[in-house]
Amino acid sequence: MSTAHPDAVAAESTGLSAKQARILRYLRENAADRTYFKSRLIADDLDLSAKEVGANMGAVADAATDVDVEKWGYSSGTTWMVTD
């Protein structure tokens, strides 16, 4: 049984940082229930800043193969459209 943290394993397999892997896992887990995600709400759920989320979303979008991540709009914060 491996004791490696799931985000660390995901980061190694996708080339993402641990923070980016956390964001991607969050989007995968919630894409079935929601389509639009605000950076600040992702940040609140993951204990990050909205700036950290926004700065890492490009890498997350490039690495994601099972969900599509697209910058959707900017109204009181960046909104991302995520579809699976």
Characterization of the model:
The protein is 52% helix and 19% strand. The chain is globular, with a radius of gyration of 12 Å. With 84 residues, it is of the alpha+beta class. The model has no long low-confidence stretch (mean pLDDT 87). 21% of the residues are buried. Residues 12-83 form the DUF7123 domain.
List the helices and strands and how they pair.
Blueprint: H1 6-14, H2 18-30, E1 36-38, H3 39-46, H4 50-63, E2 68-74, E3 78-83
Antiparallel strand pairs: 1-3, 2-3
Helix pairs in contact: 1-2, 2-4, 3-4
Quaternary organisation of the protein chains: single chain
Q: What is the H/E order?
A: HHEHHEE
End-to-end gap = 30 Å
**Reading side by side through the largest sheet, how are the strands ordered?**
1-3-2
Shape: globular
Per DSSP, the total helix count is 4
Rg is 12 Å
Tell me the structural class. alpha+beta
Average pLDDT rating: 87
